[in-house]
């Protein structure tokens, strides 16, 4: 790899991270137009790294790319939230079975300790708690040993992070989910795949309901561009 290519790769990664974080933090609203020229100027680069970065963001479901139209942040709707959480619940069912079958006792004890720490961190709320959730999910995902499941969850993780912030939960809602999370890990440790599967699906249905209701409440208070 030559120096120019290495520099372009670094620039692509930087653009992806910058735009992704702007979307997740709400600095770029759903439906917002993304100006490729402005991004190129901001990073002092050509349009090529910008196009590559936007393709990656499109693959992660954060922006839409349509011929002869400017890129834009994906519009958000209650249906989009419902669909994503339903799909994730199905994938987490597969993940539960794989974790019970393959994860070591030591790894499950570590995950259990992480779940307890997460339950305590719930009191912090806000961005620190969101980062704790994402760290926990990374650890949980790594234990399943199913390359296809990991690939699917990796492709969804930034959109999930975004939707969590859009449908930011109350203290009571987060506390409820923290308790559910500990129960899921207890089922992993008991090697009870049917129970872990059922608890994971139930927890994600509940989380999806919370996120959707919170999103709709915020829409009524301060409407954002959204899909139908």
UniProtKB/TrEMBL annotation:
SMART domains in the record: HTH_GNTR
Residue stretches making up the HTH gntR-type domain: 9-76
InterPro entries xref list: GntR_C, TF_FadR/GntR_C, Tscrpt_reg_HTH_GntR, WH-like_DNA-bd_sf, WH_DNA-bd_sf
Pfam families cross-referenced by the UniProt entry: FCD, GntR
Lineage: Bacteria, Pseudomonadati, Pseudomonadota, Betaproteobacteria, Burkholderiales
UniProt keyword annotations, A-Z: DNA-binding, Transcription, Transcription regulation
Name the UniProt record assigns to this protein: GntR family transcriptional regulator
């Amino acid at each position: 790899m030559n120096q120019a290519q290495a520099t372009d790769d670094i620039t692509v990664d930087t653009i992806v991270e910058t735009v992704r974080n702007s979307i997740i933090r709400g600095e770029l609203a759903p439906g917002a137009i993304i100006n490729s020229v402005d991004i190129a100027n901001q990073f002092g680069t050509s349009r090529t790294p910008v196009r590559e970065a936007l393709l990656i963001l499109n693959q992660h479901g954060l922006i839409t790319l349509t011929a002869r139209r400017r890129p834009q942040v994906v519009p958000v709707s209650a249906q989009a939230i419902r669909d994503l959480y339903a799909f994730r619940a199905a994938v987490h069912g597969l993940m539960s079975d794989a974790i019970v079958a393959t994860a070591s006792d030591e790894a499950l004890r570590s995950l259990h300790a992480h779940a307890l720490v997460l339950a305590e961190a719930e009191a912090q709320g806000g961005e620190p708690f969101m980062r704790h959730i994402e760290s926990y999910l990374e650890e949980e995902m790594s234990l399943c040993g199913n390359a296809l499941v990991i690939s699917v969850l990796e492709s969804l993780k930034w959109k999930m992070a975004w939707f969590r912030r859009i449908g930011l939960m109350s203290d009571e809602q987060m506390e409820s989910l923290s308790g559910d999370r500990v129960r899921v890990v207890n089922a992993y440790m008991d090697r009870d795949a049917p129970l872990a599967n059922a608890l994971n699906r139930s927890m994600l249905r509940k989380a999806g309901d919370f996120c959707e209701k919170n999103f709709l409440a915020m829409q009524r208070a301060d409407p954002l561009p959204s899909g139908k």
